[in-house]
UniProtKB/TrEMBL annotation:
<dbReference type="GO" id="GO:0032991">
    <property type="term" value="C:protein-containing complex"/>
</dbReference>
<feature type="region of interest" description="Disordered">
    <location>
        <begin position="33"/>
        <end position="69"/>
    </location>
</feature>
<dbReference type="GO" id="GO:0005085">
    <property type="term" value="F:guanyl-nucleotide exchange factor activity"/>
</dbReference>
<feature type="domain" description="Rab3GAP regulatory subunit C-terminal">
    <location>
        <begin position="769"/>
        <end position="1378"/>
    </location>
</feature>
<keyword id="KW-0175">Coiled coil</keyword>
<feature type="compositionally biased region" description="Acidic residues">
    <location>
        <begin position="44"/>
        <end position="64"/>
    </location>
</feature>
<dbReference type="GO" id="GO:0097051">
    <property type="term" value="P:establishment of protein localization to endoplasmic reticulum membrane"/>
</dbReference>
<dbReference type="Pfam" id="PF14655">
    <property type="entry name" value="RAB3GAP2_N"/>
</dbReference>
<dbReference type="GO" id="GO:0005776">
    <property type="term" value="C:autophagosome"/>
</dbReference>
<dbReference type="GO" id="GO:1903373">
    <property type="term" value="P:positive regulation of endoplasmic reticulum tubular network organization"/>
</dbReference>
<dbReference type="GO" id="GO:2000786">
    <property type="term" value="P:positive regulation of autophagosome assembly"/>
</dbReference>
<dbReference type="GO" id="GO:0005829">
    <property type="term" value="C:cytosol"/>
</dbReference>
<dbReference type="GO" id="GO:0042734">
    <property type="term" value="C:presynaptic membrane"/>
</dbReference>
<keyword id="KW-0963">Cytoplasm</keyword>
<dbReference type="Pfam" id="PF14656">
    <property type="entry name" value="RAB3GAP2_C"/>
</dbReference>
<dbReference type="GO" id="GO:0005096">
    <property type="term" value="F:GTPase activator activity"/>
</dbReference>
<dbReference type="InterPro" id="IPR026059">
    <property type="entry name" value="Rab3GAP2"/>
</dbReference>
């Protein structure tokens, strides 16, 4: 019951608003802090855009400190306004403004809260150089009958240094602009309608007052309301049609020129006031002297108060009716920004307006009316003091003024005098809170004969002054006029205190009574914590200590709180003192608060709590019935019942009770109504589940054997109409309460019958007890599986709860199973239990409880059958039995269905908990994420693909090879001999290495296949695995092995329809954007790009991009193969298991795949060619290659289009220039491939494999080059000859001999090989410089010597080839060359030369 500060709203992203208003305070993002999304297009200029700033010299330390201070105190430099209905906030600085709107969102803790989010931001200035000086958010009342008195929309009023006042909508659309004075606007203030508290108070009109340096303009509220509505309608119509033009009504305003005052900083418009006769005569004497005449009726005057200097506070009085209000033509903003922009653009196109005409229109300003002079009547003269702000109280009787001396001065508005002063509040911000007394909180005593002593008297009103001192970071609440400080809070030094001082515009004495809006009188904006707070002040704080019984009660409450905190060894003495204190409290509400604090104490034992509550109850019963508060009496009675229940349950739990009866498997089978085979199967499933479940780090809540503190127990429960209910508490708290009731019973350590009887007598409904029992059972799975005897205890407890009856008020029995329940429908009691099992993620406990529920339900149905049988005649016994079983068939079927679903879910969960011991070189952080636990509900809501999707996530986490899935499916394949078994043997070879480490996983997988023959069909599973891997790869493209594994799964999909659809979806969703980015990048740089460029444009490293292109090539080839074979294979029928027919949720991946269109084969082939080229460039780091230059315009235009569309592709003969460029590229690829394979200096072992790429096996590049030559219209024989030449060049003659067989034009090839032979011989004779070589060279024919000297052996890549191998090559050349060939004779000479060279070595 004390003063409090409450947070009611938060900022979603206040830093974004700060960065917009203060660009120089924007924090720089460190390099690498944000990871750019590669799917978004980026420009190279964006890369490291702030790097140049690092080279600038550091600023001096003082400036750095100033900037740091400004980062926290920036809100002090802004113009701030909050709507009193809290539906809009404006933050403005200079020309910019941000409009914030509240939205309901969930916080990090999962709690729903209101957050301010940016609704609009931009520049408000129209004229050059003008800045915002003041702003108001005014909610306008709705005119609709259904929402009378409620706010319709909020208008933002902004004043500028140019003198303009502009009005905007919440979306930043300008409604109208007014220039009523050419001086800067200093302050905007608003007054809305308030119902007069009593007949003596003058009814005030609504108005908007605008303060200028030497004038005040007041706009009539009704006129402004009508104009704003008309302008808003005009904007809406103009936005819809563009040609509406309705002139809104003119604004009625008064303009007063303030005289006899030096400077004005702030003002307050008090409103219309009427003087009393005495004040009228006093004023007349002061103005007119001794002989002044007065009128019979005192005139009405508008009072204005200004603060500034000379005088420090000035009082102005304007007589009503002395001047006529001025009318202004509303300067309507041109329809809307949309139409004006279109009009200006159109006029510019068509030449309607010149630039000079537009400037002339803009420079033309409206006519400004002169002000009516108004002299200051009197003031508070203080030449050294300068006023800074003034704030009028809600009832217009007081005003608070701040000055530059750090004072806050309280003024009496009617008398014009200062009545109080506070010191030490420099730069203070002030506001008011008006509190109306709640008549229900008064003490109901007969002895109180004061006017306010009964509930029939009028409500009193108290005013509190709120002062925020930013220098000290403190917010204070003071009781006025001469009251004490009633509250103080440390809130920080950078906040802003907002006090609108108005409510909703457009109300009257009728509409203002229809609905009370939720308005905040005062708000504190804290930019550091990003929150908006308000202050709650109880009315009783305004009462003096001598007259207030409540103050005495609050003193007793504080004394009680101090007593509860002390540690006293004598508890009896403490109990006596507490009883005396609570009995001395007068107010029922305070007495209830005191009892609540006593019961919430952790230091008092249970006996003290019970005795204190009993004493208070007895005292209330002994009082007269009229003076006893009914609510307090009921509260005490309910708390006493709860304490008695707590005592009874605690006593039952503390008794030494043990079940002595032994419990065997046979007893369990009888109890659950299972035969021996079914029980063994159940036990085996639970044992597997238990073994795999213990490996995972599952944390179970430990409640210390069901012990619950009495304080917590009282917090959880509440009485409502003699029925005990549980409050809205968390799941952990719910389990703790259930454990307190049932944990000992489930362990056989407490009497189940006695506990049920106690809970039934306390008024707990059987439905609530069933919910608590199941929450305990399902959450304590680990303990339950370790103790099978708990199943018997659950069976007993469930049987007792099913027979329970609880009587409420009025006495309507709450039963578990109604005997008159229609047997043709589902029983709500058993449906509640089935729902709990369906939602539980602890599948072992859920399956056991479902078996128990099924058994108890069957037992009860049998009893009802016997009862019904006994009431029938003896001759109709068979019909009665049959009728009974037919009646219960629906519930029985639901139980059977649930048991099957839980069994399936248990097997699946066991599989997902299992782990293989395979040693992987690297585990990604994506694979380290834990898998979510399963429940029947999740599987039912996961769609048809939910089961396969969960298994796919597990396979991704374990990173199993696709062959493991095929291995586990071996038995199913054996049962279906018609299905092809290609790759099975290969799978055994690959898996054999890890088979030892898989443990029970193949068995569990096989079991899951048997349970889900449709959902885990091998093609479906491979499809989901393929999609899961590519999704995870897309999250982290550096993990290229994920994409490679995805393609492996795609290859294992047997059905071409599914394979085609999955591949097409992968291409469209994840690949085509990155593929096109890689193409344009490589075409731009003309070579394989560096790592930095790859990361910037494609979002992955150069190594990952190489693997990416290789996998893309595989995918496009799979697409083409699937398109060819899909016509031979039927579309698969996607079935669902009988137990899961009711599954709902998103469409499965396989269903989406089957909906995909047929691809356009030539277009896919076209992309495959490009992908092969890109892959070759990256794989071999080729230079001076622009991939797109190998294609003509038709070919380029067809790239990256939808693969199902028909595009115009190149056809016919290609330009020879293109073919020449393509041939050069292919020869480069062949050379690079041979170099990569045989680049070692020594001759490699022929059986050694090629060097693999970092991810998976490498391509057969020569074969790929030949395939490309076929599609690119390049002579394949040229490529083959070049390949043979390169093999011999690298000294791999044995492979060259094999490759010669593929060449068609062997004569040209022989000429090429003849040159290579000459190079080898020239190196052996001319470059080794041996004596034998020189002698041999001298013996050679001159023609051969000249030819050998012309050879350049430096072109040879391998010069260490044995001469015998070269001899074979020469013989091969002789074979290939025809005898009539011009070089045949040279070849014969070479044979002789080679033989001569080889002789010394023999």
């Amino acid at each position: 019951m004390a003063c409090s500060i409450v947070q009611f709203c938060y900022f979603q992203d206040l830093q974004a608003a700060r960065d917009f208003l203060f660009p120089h305070l924007r924090e720089e993002i460190p390099s690498g802090a944000l990871r750019r999304d590669p799917s978004k297009s980026t420009d190279w200029e964006d890369d490291g855009w702030g790097a140049w700033e690092e080279t600038e010299p550091q600023e001096p330390e003082e400036e750095g400190n100033t900037c740091k201070t400004q980062k926290t105190s920036w809100l002090q430099d802004c113009v701030l306004s909050l709507s009193p209905t809290n539906d809009l906030m404006v933050i403005a600085r200079e020309q910019k403004a941000v409009f914030l709107v509240p939205k309901w969102k969930y916080s990090d803790k999962g709690k729903e809260e209101m957050q301010f989010a940016v609704g609009w931001s931009g520049s408000l200035n129209v004229e050059e150089g003008e800045c915002v000086t003041s702003a108001l958010c005014i909610p306008l009342a709705s005119q609709k009958r259904s929402s009378t008195g409620r706010p319709d929309w909020t208008c933002i009023v902004v004043g500028f240094t140019s003198g303009y006042v502009r009005f905007y909508t919440e979306n930043g659309v300008l409604l109208l602009a007014q220039l009523l004075n050419e001086d800067p606007v200093l302050q905007l203030k608003c007054r809305t309608y308030e119902i007069p508290r009593h007949p003596g108070v003058t009814e005030q009109n609504e108005e908007l007052s605008i303060l200028y340096p030497a004038a005040i303009v007041t706009i009539d509220g009704f006129s402004l309301f009508q104009s704003l509505r008309a302008c808003r309608n005009q904007v809406a119509k103009a936005a819809a049609s563009g040609n509406e033009n309705i002139q809104p009504p003119p604004l009625a305003y008064k303009k007063w020129g303030l005289q006899d005052i030096d400077t004005i900083i702030d003002h307050a418009s008090v409103g219309i006031m009427t003087l009393s006769p005495f004040d009228q005569m006093k004023t007349a004497s002061n103005i007119g002297g001794f002989n002044a005449a007065i009128k019979n009726s005192p005139p009405a005057m508008s009072q204005y108060i200004t603060v500034g200097s000379n005088p420090f506070t000035g009082f102005f009085y304007a007589l009503e009716g002395s001047t006529q209000p001025l009318l202004s033509h509303v300067a309507l903003a041109v329809a809307s920004k949309l139409t004006s922009a279109l009009f200006n653009a159109a006029s510019g196109w068509l030449g309607w307006k010149s630039k000079h005409e537009e400037e002339a229109v803009q420079k033309q300003k409206p006519k400004v009316e002169p002000a009516t002079p108004l002299a200051v009547r009197f003031g508070l003269p203080d030449s050294r003091r300068h006023g800074e702000s003034i704030c009028l109280s809600p009832c217009n009787t007081l005003a608070a003024v701040t000055d530059d001396f750090g004072r806050v001065i309280l003024l009496d508005v009617a008398r014009g005098i200062a009545i109080r002063m506070w010191k030490g509040y420099r730069d203070a911000q002030i506001g008011w809170i008006q509190i109306v007394e709640d008549l229900h909180e008064r003490v109901p005593e007969k002895a109180d004969f004061s006017p306010f002593g009964n509930s029939q008297g009028p409500s009193r009103v108290a005013q509190f002054l709120v002062i925020y001192a930013p220098r000290r970071g403190i917010l204070e609440v003071w009781s006025t006029q001469q009251g004490p400080r009633v509250g103080a809070f440390n809130v920080g030094k950078h906040c802003r205190l907002l006090y609108p001082g108005y409510k909703i515009m457009g109300l009257n004495n009728v509409t203002s009574q229809s609905w009370q809006p939720q308005t905040y009188q005062i708000c504190l904006v804290d930019p550091v914590s990003g929150s908006v707070k308000t202050v709650n002040v109880p009315f009783h704080l305004a009462l003096s200590d001598k007259k207030s019984e409540r103050a005495k009660d609050m003193h007793l409450v504080k004394k009680l709180a101090a007593l509860l905190k002390t540690k006293s060894p004598n508890l009896d003495l403490v109990e006596t003192e507490i009883k005396e204190l609570i009995l001395d409290i007068k107010y029922p509400a305070t007495k209830k608060q005191a009892l609540e604090s006593i019961l919430a104490s952790e230091r008092l034992p249970f006996s003290c709590l019970r005795n204190i509550t009993q004493t208070l109850m007895d005292t209330l019963k002994n009082q007269e019935l009229e003076s006893v508060d009914e609510g307090l009496l009921q509260f005490c009675a309910n708390r006493l019942k709860l304490l008695q229940l707590y005592e009874s349950v605690s006593q039952l739990n503390s008794l030494d009770f043990h079940l002595d009866t032994p419990f065997s498997d046979n007893d369990l089978a009888v109890l659950l109504r299972l035969d021996e085979k079914e029980l063994l199967k159940l036990q085996a499933l639970l044992e597997k589940y238990k073994q795999e479940n213990t490996r995972t780090n599952v944390r179970f809540s430990d409640d210390k054997d069901g012990v619950l503190p009495v304080k917590t127990f009282l917090e959880y429960l509440e009485y409502e109409k003699d029925v005990l209910n549980v409050k809205k508490i968390s799941e952990e708290e719910y389990v703790a309460l259930g454990s307190f009731f049932f944990w000992k019973c489930l362990h056989g350590e407490s009497s189940t019958e006695d506990m049920c009887h106690t809970l039934e007598s306390a008024g707990l409904s059987p439905q609530l007890l069933l919910s608590l029992l199941l929450s305990v059972w399902l959450s304590k799975e680990k303990d339950i599986l370790d103790k099978p005897q708990s199943v018997c205890c659950l069976h007993t407890m469930l049987s007792l709860l099913s027979k329970m009856k609880v009587f409420s008020y009025p006495p309507i029995p709450i039963v578990a199973i109604d005997e008159t329940w229609d047997s043709q429908s589902v029983s709500p009691w058993w449906q509640q239990m089935r729902t709990a099992c369906i939602q539980s993620e602890n599948n072992g406990a859920a399956l056991l409880s479902a078996h128990v529920g099924h058994s108890v339900a069957a037992q009860i149905s049998n009893n009802m059958t016997e009862k019904k049988f006994s009431q029938t005649v003896l001759g109709a016994d068979s019909e009665a039995l049959t009728d009974s079983w037919e009646a219960l068939s629906l519930d029985t079927e639901y139980w059977k269905l649930l048991l099957k679903q839980l069994e399936d879910c248990l097997i699946l969960q066991t599989l997902l908990h299992s782990k293989g011991n395979t040693q992987t070189s690297k585990v990604s952080s994506l694979q380290a994420e834990p898998l979510p636990r399963l429940s029947v509900k999740k599987l039912l809501e996961g769609g048809k693909g939910g089961i396969a999707d969960s298994v796919a996530k597990w396979i991704f986490k374990q990173d199993f090879s696709p062959e493991v899935l095929k291995l586990a499916n071996e038995e199913r394949d054996a049962e279906n001999p018609d299905e092809p078994k290609e790759g099975v043997n290969r799978g055994f070879l690959e898996v054999s290495e890890v088979e030892m480490d898989l443990g029970a996983i193949p068995d569990l997988l096989h079991l899951a296949y048997e349970q889900f023959p449709c959902s885990l069909e091998l093609d479906v599973l491979h499809a989901h695995c393929c999609w899961e891997y590519v999704v995870q790869w897309n999250k982290d493209p550096e993990e290229a092995r994920f994409f490679v594994r995805s393609i492996e799964h795609l290859k294992h999909i047997f059905n071409a329809h599914v394979q085609n659809g999955i591949a097409l979806m992968m291409w469209n969703t994840f690949l085509v954007k990155r593929f096109s980015a890689a193409t344009y990048l490589m075409d731009k740089v003309g070579k394989s790009p560096k790592d930095r460029l790859c990361r910037r444009d494609v979002g992955m490293s150069d190594t990952a991009m190489t693997s990416f292109l290789g996998s893309c090539l595989d995918l496009l080839q799979i697409l083409m193969e699937a398109d060819v074979s899909r016509d031979e294979i039927q579309v698969p029928v996607l079935d669902t298991e009988d137990a899961w027919l009711s599954v709902e949720g998103p469409i499965s991946i396989v269903e989406l795949a089957l909906e995909q269109k047929h691809i356009h084969y030539p277009l896919v082939e076209h992309h495959s060619i490009l992908c092969s080229i890109l892959y070759a460039v990256m794989r071999f780091s080729l230079k001076t290659v622009k991939p797109l230059s190998l294609f003509d315009s038709k070919g380029k235009n067809a790239f990256f289009k939808d693969l199902t569309s028909i595009q115009l592709l190149p056809s016919g003969e290609m330009d020879p220039n293109f073919i020449s460029v393509r041939q050069q590229f292919l020869l480069k690829v062949v050379s690079a491939a041979v170099q990569a394979q045989h680049s070692a200096t020594k001759v490699k072992d022929p059986t050694e494999e090629a060097t693999p790429t970092p991810f998976g096996k490498d391509q057969d590049w020569p074969a790929l080059a030949l395939d490309l030559a076929h599609h690119l219209q390049v002579s394949e024989d040229v490529v083959r000859r070049h390949y043979v030449g390169e093999l011999y060049n690298y000294g791999v003659d044995h492979l060259g001999e094999e490759a010669i067989l593929q060449v068609h034009d062997k004569e040209v090839l022989a000429s090429q090989l003849l040159v290579l032979t000459g190079q080898r011989l020239a190196h052996a004779l001319l470059h080794t410089q041996t004596k034998e070589g020189m002698e041999l060279l001298a013996r050679l024919p001159p023609t051969l010597c000249t030819w050998l000297k012309a050879m350049d052996p430096h072109d040879l890549q391998n010069t260490e080839v044995p001469i015998a191998t070269t001899a074979k090559l020469v013989n091969k050349v002789i074979e290939l060359l025809p005898e009539k060939h011009g070089q045949y004779g040279l070849a014969l000479h070479l044979v002789e030369a080679v033989e001569a060279v080889s002789l010394p070595s023999l």
